[in-house]
Amino acid sequence: MVIVENSVVNSIKYFITADIFLKFRPFIALSLQTVVAFLALGGSAYSLVWLEGRREAEPLPRAGFWNETAPLVVVDAGHGGHDGGAVANGVVEKNLSLDIAGRLKKELEAAGVRVVMTRSEDRFLSLDERAALAGMHQAAAFVSVHLNTDGEGSGAEGIETYFAEAKGLSARQLVPEGQGRGEGGSAEFAKVVQRVVCGATRAENRGIKAREYAVVARAACPAVLVECGFITSSSESVRLKQAGYRDKVADGIARGVVLFLQVQGLRAN
Ligand SMILES: [Zn+2]
Questions:
Q1: What is the structure's pLDDT at 19?
Q2: What is the DSSP letter of 122?
C-alpha cells in the first residue's frame, strides 16, 4: 500500500505542475480525476482502493460518463449593474466575477456539464433571483463567483470557499431526495472545490467557511460561494488581472465541480 501511495504522490506532482496536462487532458482525465478524488476523499489508502474498486466494477468511458441527462450547474457571477461589488487596485468586482464565471462556464461545458448563468452581462439580479434558478432548472450544483477584500495594503490574500450550514426551509424542501438535510452536501462540495482550485492556482488556501449567505443558503442544491482572491492585495490583484491566471482559477473550480458531481454519481449508483 505504501508503494501505491508513493506512485500516487508522484503522479500528483507531475500532473499538477506539468502544462502537458492541458494538452493531453482528454486522455488522462479519468486517471487524473481518480488522483484528485483520492485527495478530496481525505487521501487515505482506503479512498483510493474504493475509487479503483468502483472503476473496475463499472468502467466509465469519458464520453458516456453522464449516463442519462448531463448534470446542470448554475454559475453565478457575483454583483452586477448598479451593484459593482468591491473596488480596489483598479479592479471592479462585478467585472472580474463575470469574466471568471464565463471561463468557468466554458470549462464545465467542455466536460459535458450543462450550465445556466445567472447573468452573462452587466445587470443587477437579487440574491433570491439568483438562488431560485437552481430550483427552476433542477440544478445539481450552484457556484457563486466573488472576489474578496480586506483593508487595502493589509496583505491578506488567497482563496476561500463558503457554504451554508443550514439551508433555508424552502430550499431544503426542494433539495432532491437522498441528498440529506442541513447543508445538503454543500460542505463536501466546498471542500472539494477549495482543494482543487488551490492546487490549480497555487493560491494561499484559506479553507472553507460556513456562513449563511443568502445566495447559497437558498439555492435548492449543493451550493458554494468561491472568493477567488483579494483584489485589495497588491500582488494578488496583479495576478487576477492576468487572463492566464483567471483561466487557472476557472479550471480549478470546474475540476472541483466535476469531481464532486462524479463522486455523487458513483455514490448514487
Ligand atoms: Zn462579492
A1: 43
A2: S
| Cα(178) to centroid(ligand 1), Å | 31
What cell does 158 get?
Answer: 488567497
- 259: its cell numbers: 469531481
Q: For residue 261, report the distance from its CA to the centre of ligand 1, in Å.
A: 25
pTM: 0.74
Give the strand pairing for 141-148 and 205-210.
unpaired
The number of angstroms, rounded, from the C-alpha of 124 to the middle of its chain's C-alpha atoms is: 23
Structure confidence by residue, pLDDT tens digits, 20-69: 444 444 444 445 556 666 666 655 544 544 554 444 333 333 445 676 68
User: Would you state the cell numbers that stand for residue 179, as one nine-digit string?
Assistant: 441528498
Distance 230 CA to ligand 1 centre (A): 11
Cell (9 digits) for 94: 462585478
Show Cβ contacts of residue 5 under 8 Å, excluding neighbours closer than 6 positions. 45, 48
